[in-house]
Amino acid sequence: MVKFDHNKMRKTRILLRDSHVQAAIPKTVILSASSLRRMLGNYRTVYVKPNVGALGVGVMRVRKLSASKYEWRYKLLRKHVSSITQLMSLIHSYKKSGSYLVQRGINLMKYRGSRFDLRVVTQRRNSADHWRVTGVLARVAAPGRIVTNGSQGASIHPYQQVFGANMSARQTGQLRNSIDHLALRIAKRYTHVYTKCIELGLDVAVDDNRRIWLLEVNTRPQIKPFTKLKNLSMYRTIMDYRGKNKGH
């Protein structure tokens, strides 16, 4: 079993070395009172999440509503406070152990009124093989939820379905091509450091202006969501690659 770094900030720094990938990464910094103040001043909406974690666990959203009013959300909770000090106190009362990150919030494209993002799986059969995008699906957030993880109630849909509600079939095809191109760049950049890596799960978002963003890189991606699609061809392809990846 090959061991990889699960520290999100270190993974981000690896990817920032590729200018094409860098343009798709939302500004991300280590959480502190000063960094939170600065990020909210620049972007007004940010996500606070564990530096090491998965499945959307521990993710909070903070919005600056005015000079002295902030909205904090976690799971189905929503609270308002009037200072960064109160905000940090609230965050610390719900955060797990370890460091946290502050990431710029993205205005995600919506499907039937709910935010969605994409899980993109890239694989190769061995460390000498070419990378290939073997799976793409959409995760639509459950009502009232701030994250799109299936473990937190999100629904799973073919990407063509959610894109089709926002754009033409031709535009959907062009966007998919751009996502594939970015995913392969990310995989190649990542394996400059982790040469044995043969599978990555990417959390990719598309904003209201159809700009593509990379939210997170997972070295042990959950494949179960692909079993929820009616067409299981992507799931079979992913498992075929995994079957030939001895020692993964």
Biggest beta-sheet profile: 6 strands, antiparallel
CATH superfamily of the largest domain: ATP-grasp fold, B domain
Order of helices and strands: HHEHEEEEHEEEEEHHEEH
Bulk shape: globular
- CATH topology annotation of the largest domain: D-amino Acid Aminotransferase, Chain A, domain 1
Helical content stands at: 25-40%
Rg over CA atoms, rounded to whole Å, is: 18 Å
GO molecular function: ATP binding; metal ion binding
Keywords: ATP-binding, Nucleotide-binding
Organism: Paenibacillus cellulosilyticus
InterPro entries: ATP-grasp (IPR011761), YheC/D (IPR026838)
Task: Lay out the secondary structure.
Layout: H1 8-15, H2 19-22, E1 28-30, H3 33-43, E2 45-50, E3 60-66, E4 69-74, E5 77-81, H4 84-94, E6 100-104, E7 110-111, E8 114-123, E9 132-140, E10 155-158, H5 159-164, H6 169-190, E11 199-206, E12 212-218, H7 233-243
Antiparallel strand pairs: 1-6, 2-3, 2-6, 3-4, 4-5, 7-8, 8-9, 8-11, 9-10, 11-12
